[in-house]
Structure formats: structure tokens, C-alpha cells
Amino acid sequence: MKEIIFNADDFGLSSGANRGIIKAWREGVLTSTSLMPGGAAFDEAVALAAANPGLQVGVHITLVQGRSVLQHPGSPSLAPGGDFGNNPVREGMRYFFLKSLRPQLEAEIEAQIRKCVDAGIRLTHVDGHLNIHMHPTVFDILTELMPKYGISTFRLSRENLAAELSVARNRVVGKYADAFIFSRLADRCRTALDRLGIRYAGEVKGLLNSGKMTEEYLLKALGTVREELTEIYFHPGCRPCGELDRWMPEYRHDDEVAALTSPAVRRRMAELGLRLRNYRGEEKTYA
């Protein structure tokens, strides 16, 4: 059986992100979203989640290119001045090699989860901004926190490279590198997830074409979905929006809203016999 979860990242980042996500949920095929605890429009997102109870919400752990929930004074600091670093490679190296940052990471990650829970969000899944949740140090911390907070599903980010290149042959070297790195990270995570009984999708699409999930791309990518549960993630949003321009100026947020609300995408899904669901297993009608 071919089943799809359409997830939107960055819920709460800004009002522009929130508008795009709610439009894709109400008018399109979106089934779930991931809430950014340090986002400028977090409170607005929480209110929107309450008004749209069918929209499944998880936590989008943010440790790079975003704002922290806690203050981290001193040196070295996880987030000097409340902002995480912008370079994901540099921050990843710091989190792995600077052992003095481990207590700050533990406190910050739990504070992000706690902020969502205290706001009344029933968290069901966890993922991360720029897939930071797959980082070895971050993942090890999450293996302690997911059972504690009843989080039952995890985005195991790895994507079929051959299928992706059959759809879009841009950024070939970068896609090879990303596919290799996340394949190795996924191998490391899988054993712990199985031991904990944490569920995950068979494949995650969106990793290798992040920010460019247009209707044209999606219509082709749907044809590569296999007989399993597949998560495809997006970054829908509505411009003008200063926060979207600040953090992701090259992302095609409006085009991703258009893809998620496209009648042509619905028709293609029906032709392929794809079932639309969320991580809780609730189905969404799209025909």
C-alpha cells in the first residue's frame, strides 16, 4: 500500500509561514506540521493549531538558523544573544566536539519540547530544522526525551537518491553528499528507534530538493513513491514576510503552497492510488 504524509516545517516561524501552512491544510493535501518553539509567531501558531484540531502537530527542534527558547550566557554559548549560528556544518561540529555544550543542548532541547507541551500541543512526532534532529549528539538526547514526553514518531531523514535524480538532476554533487551523510545517520538512528518502539516512515522526500517543492516537481516525484509509508515535507509560506526573507530568501514558499493546493496533484494522487494520512494513521480525503 502506498501511503503519504505531507508535512509542513517551520510552523510558528512567522505569520507568513503560518498563513501558508493553514491554507495548505484547509484547501489542500497537507496532513501535519512541525512547530518551531523559538519562532516569532509561535503563539499565533498555537492558536491556529487549536482552531484546526485535525492538523497533526509535532515539534521542529531548532538549533541552527533560528532563535533559542532559553538564554545561554557565558562562553562557549549554544546561542550567543539568543540566536543560533547560521552555518549548519560549523554548528554541527561544535555540538559534536565541544563537550561543554552538552548540558546546554540538553536543557534547550527539553525546553523546546516543554514549551509546546505547556501550550497545550499534543506532540506526536519530532523532526528538526535542517534535519538537526539526526545529529548524533542531538539524537542521543532525544532518545531520552521522546519516551518521557510520549512522542511516538520520528522523521528518519533519508531519501532514495536514484529516484530523486530521475525527477530533478540539479545540484547532483550536493545530492550525492547529502544522501550519503543522511543514509549513514539513519543507519545509526534506526536501531535505537526500533528498541524504543518509535515509528518512522519508510522514506522521507524533500531532503534533497528542500525549498523547491513546486507543483511540477511534485507531480513527477509522486510517481516514485513506493509501497510503504512516505513522508514528503515542505516549507509553505506567504510573502511578503520579513522572517521568511531573512532566514530562507531562496526558498519558493508560495510555490510550495501552490503545489499543496493543486488540483493536478490531487488528480495524480488518485491515478496512482495513493492514500493520504498523518502519523496518527488518520486518513484525509483529497479527491
Protein model, in words:
With 287 residues, this protein is an alpha/beta fold. 44% of the residues lie in helices and 13% in strands. The protein contains 11 helices and 8 strands. It has helices spanning 15-27, 42-51, 88-97, 102-118, 136-148, 161-167, 172-196, 215-221, 242-247, 253-260, 263-272; strands at residues 3-11, 32-35, 56-61, 125-128, 153-154, 203-205, 229-234, 275-276. Strands 1, 2, 3, 4, 5, 6, 7 and 8 form an 8-stranded parallel β-sheet that branches. Strand 6, helix 8 and strand 7 (229-234) form a beta-alpha-beta unit. Helix 1 (15-27) runs parallel beside helix 10 and helix 4 (102-118) runs parallel beside helix 5 (136-148). It is globular, with a radius of gyration of 18 Å. The two termini are 18 Å apart. The mean pLDDT is 97.
Write the layout of secondary structure elements.
Elements: E1 3-11, H1 15-27, E2 32-35, H2 42-51, E3 56-61, H3 88-97, H4 102-118, E4 125-128, H5 136-148, E5 153-154, H6 161-167, H7 172-196, E6 203-205, H8 215-221, E7 229-234, H9 242-247, H10 253-260, H11 263-272, E8 275-276
Parallel strand pairs: 1-2, 1-7, 1-8, 2-3, 3-4, 4-5, 6-7
Helix pairs in contact: 1-10, 4-5, 5-7
